[in-house]
Design a protein that fits this description.
CATH superfamily of the largest domain in chain A: Dihydrodipicolinate Reductase, domain 2
Helix content of chain A: 25-40%
CATH class of the largest domain in chain A: Alpha Beta
CATH architecture of the largest domain in chain A: 2-Layer Sandwich
Order of helices and strands of chain A: EHEHHEEHEHHEHEHHEEEEHHEHEEH
CATH topology of the largest domain in chain A: Dihydrodipicolinate Reductase, domain 2
Radius of gyration of chain A: 19 Å
Oligomer: homotetramer
Distance between the termini of chain A: 18 Å
Number of domains of chain A: 2
Chain lengths: 352, 352, 352, 352
């Protein structure tokens, strides 16, 4: 291990469902290695293997399995911390670590909308990384916090970005059919999932609206939200992984379904330019079959890091509509934070 | 049985999944009794019990169980025929029966959009029954065909009608999450349903648009489609019964969510006025809980004959949005035809 | 209400999933009426409607909806209490109420195996009611506790009883496929249920063995467990309601599948003799189709109070095998307690 | 491609669900390459991509995608043919190919029980390959047919083999909970799968009994079935992939759960000795957790080629019991045939 040149990282909230995904995706990562695992006091004194009810079908990485669990309050040695902390404890811990000099890449919603904390999708708003200068100066921190979006917002925004660039966007209507893994474990009760749809997910519709505006907006010393109106209806369906979203858009200028498809297909951003290790070759994969994307068939496209789009067609009300699907715990959570960390690294912004 | 004064009816396509629902709902009906059961030649020569792979949790009515299956081509004695025929055979058989003097109440899509055949929801467009005069005269038939809408369209239109009357409607955006029973049996493969959403149902989106316009439109000797633009996205989810639909509407004039709820709650139509046996007391049930309606909890509201609405709230794009749920094989299929037959009876239009 | 001659009853643990089933099944009961609802302090001060996340598809009975929730510690006026209390609080509360003179009919496992507390299936061991004399005398109680079996054991034992009587039973091998509602709400996580089988239910296999022996055994001042060896393997499957069980039996003397079916079909017990209101006409329904019983089709047989048996055939190892299905929250829980209460009533053993 | 030294193989029934699995597993195989794809005339004239409704989450291999579909009757150039043909056409086609000199490795049940055709699990009865000499001589064929077992039998027998060797086996009781993919596509209707268990799979229980005896038996010029009594109860549950089986065994001599676990853990056979490319390192993986194996977590163990065992414990009736899980379309179908082909290759028995 001593010859391992990779940057040591801590995973906060490591035993939970997004925490597990962090540990799994970081196995064999070329730049980072899992060095510290942090969880609530209930797990302290155990190894990761003992503390964790591992729920992924990929197996628990051997290196992580024998690491001891640290307490929320313990000092962290790794310069980088990935956070999958529960909302109620995230604020204090993440801020403390940033103050102490760590780069905190957080999947938690707590800090996403703060005026000096970047909410990032590297393909969409890589320039927002500059907000950390303001953040560090204003808060007197030597480290920083950067966040990734909600699991439904990120996939929608990925598909919106090329349309915004090419045609402008006035309004977006979206109805989601979200996987149960989005609620963590135990999360959604089986009695709510079997033979049922629950047409409500607390604060999800609000997040889709406000995060979209921040993500598609600019940064010029402060965030300038994009003037895109979003109306979301969010539903929980009986799917393990993969959020399906039916989207309808009023573009700034007319575009045919073929033009929309072309814009999506040719879309690439900073991660593709830079060849970041977790970057999908194609951030958006457009399928031509009439009955795709489907969660079971398409959620692992580009290792779960792409958004998959299908059924692009005219909408008689708003102009154009389509269906998108994305993996909600890979690109929609842990994978998003890791890609953010990769961006910060090549930008020379990690404290290492 | 000789003293049974009820009108004998035939069920066409009786062994299929909507056919079974007809037989089940007609058990103990005060006005009709199942006298004849018609199915494809594969079933001929068997009793209903022998020919049918009964898939409902309500038990097979004893009276129907011992009836012999008739062939598609056999003469029908009953004045009324309920049709759950497969599309490819429906046209010829339904027309022959209408020509021979039967009232054919059809759940099949074949004739729904024809210019002299009523597409009916008794609460919505009861006056369209008058189209059968034109139909009979024009075609030289002594009987007639009347149809009920697609299982997704009917519930949406039920909830739209009071809004159209009170505020006018310009445009309706809808995303459906439809139950597998809508595709019959065997219908949707389990490999398409478990842990999956299929974002496509053939011709469903088109039906929702065109049927809505016919249903909400007028009849003055010919049908005058309502100028309501409908944009539908239809999905199949892992639910047995009950279609959930997320709707967003641009009203003709502004209305608050409370006004919308009041209009729906106070809505009633001809079936309620006439006290038809299958009529729900409340065609639309509005629920206040934030997480309703849910398929598993609400689909049997008013014996499956009501549409259940929840989450009425402002839509920042179109004005108002809500979620609705309706039973797709009761009010969405067999129950709809039976209610139509009840309307024809009290209007004196059945050939009895 | 003053003219209502029915016996007032309390439901303990009324807001939980078995508690809800008690309230639902007691609606319109000819002998009992729900007068008091007891739940944890979290619910106190609310009405039942406010306190309860009602999860049944039958609607909440109007009479119960407006009753105030009482605290576990509050005095109870009703002579009869049905208990769906969580295990950790059941012991103390049930004993206190029995001491104070109430008849406590409990679905909780806490007291099932105690040497002076009857574990009852009225069709199987109605004579065990006499144990309450010993119980009252020994403990100095004016009331008593009587229990019903585990949801898997009760259905299996119902089907074993006629075989025990006719042929004797040496050994029973059983593999269960149990519904998620057996774990209450929220209970089983959807991530454990969708696309999965969990081959373990804590203490379930032990209960099936020991409860079977007590139920099939005698009472002669003390319980004499039946010398039947039971080997159980218990699994949780993705089913809402209805436990399916594959059983294989070594009978005391040989019997053909037809003889086994005949014994089951002709089986009846005290509830059928006495015509108890909740008694199924046929406690065991034997089906001939090769692919029955099925949870979705058969669980509501006899209003959920019967065990449904199919596929009776020779077992080359133990002699005979079959599949059984039973509703786990009706006959397997609340319905069982209510039937017990009905038996105590006609036996003149209720404190009223 | 000309420099590709791998053996060209044909896949018969390539568009079906096991056929797709063959194509997927053969991608990048070190010894074999997919050269020909055969399907029913409906697909002829199309490429594999056009003809196939690909249902695996792994993507369609690029090399296969552009191959043209051949008709059942077309001549085959590849020396090896993997068969996933439907039962009704398998017999004639497989025999013709064997007669013409091909090695036919078949997953179809048609020929499994014939007295000169090996039914193989390379870890269990590798010596049965010698039956092809008798087969070729007796039938006058230059090629041969070899088969792999039913998807439920293969995993059970894998776990039985080390117990047979160490302790002897008299009798095996098994109840299966089988995945829907075992029935192909469309296969099991979603209305049979959602919220349900179907306690019947045609001919499955018979296969488990007779195939087990052939597999565990000897070959000395003819097959000598092992005198093991098997009693199976087979169920279909709502799982996509992975059969779970509850097994109880009467051993020839007593063994503790630890001894059983040790025998399984130390088990290896010819594929492990020979280092066959598809051989799992551990054919049987024994887990210690109380609630494993689970389909969702364990079915891909050793790339789907291992049987996973858990909960080994005493059975009070037969002696020892446990739960096993295996991937039904990898080790249970296509992977089994491929491993068989690898064995024939190193034995020098392929016609190449």
């Amino acid at each position: 291990m001593s010859s391992d040149k990779r940057i040591p990282v801590a995973v906060l909230g490591a035993t939970g469902s997004v925490g597990q995904r962090f540990v799994q995706l970081l196995e064999n990562h070329p730049w980072f290695r899992v060095a510290e695992l942090v969880a609530s006091e209930r797990s302290v004194g155990k190894t990761y293997r003992e503390a964790t009810d591992w729920r992924l079908d990929a197996f628990m990485p051997a290196e992580a399995a024998d690491l001891p669990i640290k307490d929320y309050g313990d000092p962290i040695a790794s310069p980088v911390a990935f956070s999958a902390l529960p909302g109620e404890v995230a604020s204090e811990i993440e801020q403390r670590l940033a103050r102490e000099g760590h780069a905190v890449l957080s999947n938690t919603s707590t800090h996403r909308m703060e005026p000096d904390i970047p909410l990032l999708i590297p393909e969409v708003n890589a320039d927002h990384v500059r907000a950390i200068e303001v953040q560090k100066a204003g808060r007197g921190w030597s480290g920083f916090i950067a966040t990734n979006p909600n699991c439904s917002a990120i996939h929608m925004v990925l598909t919106l970005k090329p349309l915004l660039d090419a045609f402008g966007i006035d309004a977006v209507m979206v109805t989601t059919m979200q996987a149960v893994s989005g609620a963590g474990y135990p999360g959604v009760a089986s009695l709510d999932a079997i033979d049922n749809v629950v047409p409500f997910i607390r604060t999800e519709e609000e997040k889709m609206a406000e995060e979209t505006q921040k993500l598609l907006g600019g940064w010029d010393g402060e965030f300038r939200p994009a003037p895109v109106v979003v109306s979301a209806q969010c539903n929980r369906v009986s799917v393990r992984d993969g959020h399906t979203e039916c989207v309808s858009i009023r573009l700034g200028q007319n575009a045919s379904p073929d033009e929309v498809a072309d814009a999506m297909r040719s879309f690439a951003g900073r991660p593709q330019e830079l060849g970041l290790p977790s970057a999908p070759k194609r951030p958006i994969v457009v399928r031509d079959e009439p009955n795709r994307p489907q969660a079971i068939l398409d959620r692992n496209t580009e290792n779960g890091m792409a958004s998959v789009v299908g059924r692009i067609r005219p909408c008689p009300i708003l102009g154009v509509k389509y269906v998108l699907l994305g993996h909600n715990t890979i690109r929609g959570a842990a994978g998003a934070s890791i890609l953010n960390a990769e961006l910060f690294k090549v930008e020379g912004l990690l404290p290492v």
